[in-house]
TrEMBL record:
Assembly description: The exocyst complex is composed of EXOC1, EXOC2, EXOC3, EXOC4, EXOC5, EXOC6, EXOC7 and EXOC8. Interacts with EXOC3L1. Interacts with BIRC6/bruce. Interacts with MYRIP. Interacts with SLC6A9.
Keyword field contains Amino-acid biosynthesis: no
Species this chain originates from: Cepphus grylle
Protein name: Exocyst complex component 3
Sequence intervals crossing the membrane: 89-117
Length: 745
């Protein structure tokens, strides 16, 4: 039979072992010793088998009882008997083992004593641990939890060794220790709350944080031990490895992210400065947190945690994520600047990561960029296009506002030197300045781009300014009573040209590197030319005003009325002087140009009056009287313009000399010397044409047609010796041709 075969095999094995033990004569002395050792081994194996069957018997009893209670279907009965659970069975098992111990003297049973002792009191220990957790005594709570886990794990391990396939018994043990799992989770929850508030806790109660770190370290050790045992035996208790250190770092990471995200208190709708505020709060929080981490937190963790560097990386990552989110929003121009300034400059400055108290642990040069260059470029590109349309809009609005001032009934303001001006140049350049200062915060390259943009837009703006000034003049000519302060505002427009010129130079000097000067020279030249045109046209329109008022008085010159003693020139001088009181508010160099131009135009108009042949002197007496009046009036003009140039040594003498030279031709009493006198005049002023000489001789009134013909023909051969400073004046003056009625006379 099978039983006999087993016995035979056992005997054969025993014979072999005994033979092995007794190979030398001296070993015979130890036979008794061998016998006792083998007896102990046998007893131990038998005892283990008995214990195992005892546990199985208890478990079987527990199952039968459970099934019976379920089958009865009596809820009350179940409730009353539910306390007869695994604990009572284990207690029963415990007394059985004591009994076996007394009878079998088994060494192996000693191994089970501690487990059974703690197993019996599990619910009590769970309650105590729960209380400790609630009181915040985390280290003691963890110590008890470790004891409980140790009991469970060792029981499970023994069960696994005896019968690794028996999952049912394993589950029974696991169920019995079920409350312990909840305890572990409860304790973990407390730890993570401390970890979440670690930067606050470390200031208020650093020992609490140290306790948490010690608990995590203990768990890490147990994890390592259990993993080693798994390698050797294949067994690992449920819930292992706990990986609490890894969880701690995950919680820290989430806490850092939440801290960064939670700093945005406002939106654009509620506060225009929302982004500036948000970035400033982030800067402050991050700097404070890292300083605490370096000075206090670092001391609460073992060095191998490298806690400061880990936190530094977490903050950097969280910031990078947040900045990318912000960059992806639909930001306005000023918000793009705020974001880029913060990302590119503030972050690594002494106000944040470059803070001296963070070094040497934080090296700003080794920090990665918060956002990629690609994102930076996209933001800059968006900024430039937004800024372009903004500047165009601002300039248009500024000009519209300025135009409204032009029609006011009050004079424009004057600067500290008394020159009329409007606020336009100040508004335009203040806007440019602000945008350049903002761009300079980001980098040099952007600053240059913004300067080029400002000047480019300025160029187009000046063309519009010129057109508006022209329209202003045209509107005024339709009704010269309106606007009331036309002259004063036209002066302000002229002066603004000078201010614009100076502002462009100062802007370039302040914001442009010397090597970039060439790239702007052409646009600068173009702007200067436009400004000169505006000023020149402005001056010209003001002189037109003067001469429109002078027209009736100029029409009186060289007429019978004039000869009879009219004071037309006196009125002309008073009117010019009156206008020039206003023109004193024009800035140099425009004022100087204007005085010269006014002088020239007065002389031209005077000579034109002569060439109009409105008078023809009847005799030598009249010629003398007329000539002397002309010389006197030339002197009046000379005096007036000397006064207007305030003795600035302006060479305007020569203009009045022309009137005097013409007067000499008219005054001449000896007709035989007429040719000589005329030839002297022509040699000084070579742009005098034949028709001018003919007109002059007509006014003289005593030269026959042949004589005129003779003089003109002879003059053509004569040499000319003009003054090198002479600016041709006669070419502007046309002589009216004789009409048919005149010829019939």
């Amino acid at each position: 039979s099978t039983m006999e075969e087993t016995d035979r095999e056992a005997v054969a094995t025993a014979v072999q072992r005994v033979a092995g033990m007794l190979q030398r004569p001296d070993q015979l002395d130890k036979v008794e010793q061998y016998r006792r050792r083998e007896a102990r081994k046998k007893a131990s194996v038998e005892a283990r088998l008995k214990v195992q069957s005892l546990i199985k018997l208890s478990v079987h009893g527990y199952q039968v009882m459970s099934r019976t209670l379920n089958l009865t279907g009596n809820e009350e009965l179940r409730k009353n008997h539910l306390h007869i659970t695994f604990r009572e069975l284990v207690s029963y098992c415990f007394y059985c083992l004591v009994f076996i111990f007394l009878y079998f003297d088994c060494v192996v049973l000693l191994f089970f004593f501690p487990f059974l002792f703690s197993v019996v009191s599990v619910p009590e220990i769970v309650r105590e641990t729960q209380d400790l957790i609630e009181r915040g005594e985390l280290l003691q709570a963890h110590r008890k939890l470790m004891d409980l886990e140790c009991s469970r794990d060792n029981l499970m391990y023994e069960q696994y060794r005896m019968d690794s396939k028996n999952t049912h018994d394993m589950n029974l043990i696991h169920t019995y220790f079920g409350d312990m799992q909840k305890l572990s989770e409860e304790l973990a929850k407390q730890l993570w709350m401390v970890v979440q508030r670690s930067l606050v806790t470390v200031r208020r109660d650093p020992t609490l944080l140290v306790s948490v770190v010690r608990i995590i370290e203990r768990e890490e050790k147990i994890d390592r031990r259990m993993l080693d045992r798994k390698k050797q035996t294949g067994f690992i208790p449920p819930g292992r490895p706990k990986k609490w250190k890894e969880k701690m770092f995950n919680i820290l990471e989430r806490t850092v992210s939440t801290r960064i995200e939670g700093t945005q208190a406002d939106t654009r709708e509620s506060d225009k400065m929302w982004l500036v505020r948000h970035l400033e709060i982030i800067r402050k929080y991050v700097l404070d947190d890292l300083l605490v981490a370096k000075t206090l937190l670092d001391q609460c963790f073992p060095p191998h945690y490298d806690i400061f560097n880990k936190l530094l990386n977490m903050y950097h990552q969280a910031l990078s994520t947040r900045m990318q989110e912000l960059a992806a929003e639909d930001l306005e121009a000023n918000e793009i600047v705020s974001l880029l300034t913060w990302v590119l400059n503030t972050y690594k400055s002494a106000e944040m990561m470059g803070n001296s108290e963070l070094s040497p642990e934080v090296d700003v040069n080794s920090l990665d960029p918060l956002i990629s260059q690609n994102v930076v470029d996209q933001l800059l590109s968006k900024y430039m296009s937004t800024l372009t349309s903004n500047i165009i809009g601002w300039l248009r609005k500024a000009l519209e506002t300025d135009k409204k001032d032009w029609i006011k009934e009050t004079e424009p303001e004057a600067d500290q030197d008394g020159y009329y001006q409007t606020t336009l140049p100040a508004i335009v350049f203040q806007m440019f300045e602000q945008n350049l200062q903002v761009a300079a915060q980001i980098n040099e390259d952007l600053k240059t781009k913004v300067l080029l943009l400002c000047l480019q837009q300025m160029n187009s703006f000046l063309t519009r300014y010129k057109d508006e000034a022209q329209l202003y003049k045209e509107e005024h000519l339709k009704n010269r009573q309106y606007p009331q302060c036309y002259v004063q505002y036209m002066i302000a427009v002229i002066n603004n040209c000078q201010t614009f010129k100076e502002s462009i130079i100062s802007l370039k000097r302040k914001y442009l590197k010397m090597e970039m000067e060439d790239t702007l020279s052409s646009s600068h030249t173009s702007m200067d030319a436009t400004l000169d045109v505006i000023a020149k046209e402005g001056c010209s329109s003001l002189l037109d005003e003067v001469f429109m008022d002078l027209e009736p008085h100029l029409n009186e010159l060289m007429t019978k009325k004039w000869l009879m003693g009219s004071n037309a020139v006196g009125t002309i001088c008073v009117t010019v002087e009156d206008y020039f009181n206003d023109f004193a508010k024009i800035k140099k160099p425009y004022k100087k140009t204007m005085t010269v131009e006014a002088h020239r135009r007065v002389v031209v108009e005077y000579i034109r009056a002569i060439m109009l042949k409105r008078i023809s002197f009847k005799n030598a007496e009249e010629r003398k009287e007329g000539a002397e009046k002309m010389i006197k009036e030339a002197e009046q003009f000379r005096f007036l313009f000397k006064k207007l140039t305030a003795g600035s040594g302006e060479d305007t003498e020569g203009l009045c000399d022309i009137i005097e030279a013409i007067a000499e031709v008219i005054k001449l009493t000896d007709p035989s010397l007429l040719y000589l006198e005329v030839s002297t005049l022509v040699s000084k002023y070579p742009d005098i044409r034949d028709d001018h000489i003919a007109a002059l001789l007509t006014v003289r009134g005593d030269a026959s047609r042949d004589m005129k013909q003779n003089i003109i023909e002879t003059l053509d051969q004569g040499p000319s010796q003009p003054n090198p400073n002479y600016v041709p004046i006669f070419k502007e003056i046309t002589v009216p041709t004789l009409t048919v009625p005149k010829l019939l006379k």
